[in-house]
Amino acid sequence: MAEIKRALLFVNSHKAEAPSLVEELRAELGRLGIETLEYSGGGFLGSPPDLAFCLGGDGTVLFAARTIAPMGVPIFPVNIGTLGFIAVVHPLAWREVFEEWRRGRIGISRRLMLDITVDRRGTDVAAAHCLNDAVISASGIAKIIRLEVSMGSGHAGETMDLGRYRSDGLIVATPTGSTAYSVAAGGPILDPEIDAFIINPICPFTLSNRPVVVPARETIIVEVEAEQRSAVLLTADGQQSFPLEPGDRVFIRKAPYEAKIIASGRQEFYRALRTKLNWSGGSPHA
After folding, report:
1. Once rounded to an integer, what is the mean pLDDT over residues 36-53?
2. Which domains does the chain have, with CATH numbers?
3. DSSP state, 69?
4. What is residue 60's three-state secondary structure?
């Protein structure tokens, strides 16, 4: 049985159900002798928690993953948003699912994350990591931007030129992020535990620029070309952003750690796909 002494709560306070669910969860965990602390920003006092509960939707899970995945803390996502692809535990079922996990009957899905750095004239000026995607896009009125894209070993060694992209932007997505912005931009859906990236142009000027799936061992290098009619913005998971300048190079790699998500394995993923995309042929659920 998994030994849990301290649990950290990530709560979307904008959800009406959140206060009562927090109270219920604190009471039940307290009965089990588990100390609970609600995340309020900043670092941790003492050792990292043994587990993190996310009360919200997929966006709450993305935030939590960026915060605690580097420490190897598993995430238990309780969905009080709309039906998600990551947060799939129903609030009425969390006790049962939690007990099943503690007894080793439910596994952990290990999800690839991205590590992002921005090089400006030989100096790293920004860094981020994320679970869904890195997006380089226009932030001004003139939408089309020009990007040079390659992949390989990064700062040194052989690289493979993927060409120039004239488009509204570029998405580099993980398998987890394949069901987010990337699929809306015409990208493929990947099994959540495949070790790969999607490189997906947004509304490309040249229709032959298509999404490409590449091994996650590669480093994706995106250079912002000199002549741009619009400002360019880098966004991680749709929640963090950094302005880019002409000549900046963005390096996107597989992070050296994974997001560990409980009760969000392949079965749950394909069940969410069938429901969200109406693969069963019944009435769709949005």
Report:
1. 83
2. 6-107+263-276 (3.40.50.10330), 113-256 (2.60.200.30)
3. G
4. helix
What is the predicted pLDDT for the residue at 156? 57
What percent of the chain stands above pLDDT 90?
A: 75
Contact 180, 187 (CB under 8 A): no
Is 122 buried (19+), middle (13-18) or exposed (0-12) by CB count in 10 A? exposed
Give the residue, 227 or 171, on which the prediction is more confident: 171
> Is-catalytic flag, 58?
yes
Q: Where are the beta strands (DSSP E) in 216-248?
A: 219-224, 232-236, 240-244
Q: Which two tokens stand for residue 264?
A: 């969000």
Tell me which of 50, 58, 168, 195 is the catalytic residue.
Answer: 58
Q: Which two tokens stand for residue 245?
A: 């300048």
Give the model confidence (pLDDT) of 138-160 as tens digits: 987 768 899 999 998 655 567 89
Question: What's the rounded Cα separation, in Å, for the pair 254 and 232?
Answer: 23
